[in-house]
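TICKET: design request
STATUS: open
ATTACHED STRUCTURE:
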């Protein structure tokens, strides 16, 4: 599958499976509420559990009306890109389909050049792991196809992918709090 075709599909609101910087992800445009809802249905994901959003730069946070403190900005500049997801406050009502009433969103800037290029062109994407809720994440494209078959528009084969998920952190009074220990060490 060509880069330009993936970008076009994402801009059209289509859903696909691609390798991320950690594991295979089921991806779709973060700015398309219908696409986000379809991903929840495909994965059989708990409806009130927000998904991680992949972005191409710290500046992408402005598209979600995220206002960083100096401490948060310094932390992100020091630690991104990496398999590190950061939960940030987002009380903006128009993004309720993403934050699911939590008033927070989790973002990650992946450390993968091909993926960053896709994100620069297509925009931010939601990217939960490529599996059904409660099942093991797909470690190869064939496993992902078993989960989703022809219910997604495209698959990008990145070979075998076995990794821990990203580390997830949040800020509590500008102190970093680890919510999930993953592959990235803080």
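STATUS: resolved
RESOLUTION: sequence designed for all positions
ATTACHED SEQUENCE:
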């Amino acid at each position: 599958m060509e880069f330009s075709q993936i970008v076009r599909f994402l801009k059209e609101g289509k859903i696909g499976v691609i390798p991320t910087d950690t594991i295979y992800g089921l991806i779709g445009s973060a700015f398309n509420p219908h696409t986000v809802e379809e991903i929840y249905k495909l994965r059989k994901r708990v409806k009130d559990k927000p998904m991680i959003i992949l972005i191409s730069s710290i500046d992408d946070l402005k598209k979600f009306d995220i206002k960083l403190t100096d401490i948060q900005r310094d932390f992100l500049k020091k630690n991104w890109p990496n398999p590190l997801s950061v939960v940030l406050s987002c009380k903006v009502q128009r993004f309720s389909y993403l934050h699911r009433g939590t008033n927070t969103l989790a973002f990650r800037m992946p450390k993968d050049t091909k993926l960053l290029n896709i994100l620069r062109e297509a925009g931010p994407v939601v990217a939960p792991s490529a599996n059904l809720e409660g099942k093991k994440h797909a470690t190869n494209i064939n496993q992902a196809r078993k989960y989703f078959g022809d219910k997604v528009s495209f698959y990008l084969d990145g070979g075998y992918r076995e990794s821990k998920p990203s580390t997830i952190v949040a800020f509590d009074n500008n102190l970093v709090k680890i919510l999930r220990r993953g592959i990235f060490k803080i």
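CLOSING REMARK: The helical segments are 3-11, 33-43, 70-79, 96-99, 113-122, 141-148. The chain has a mean pLDDT of 95.
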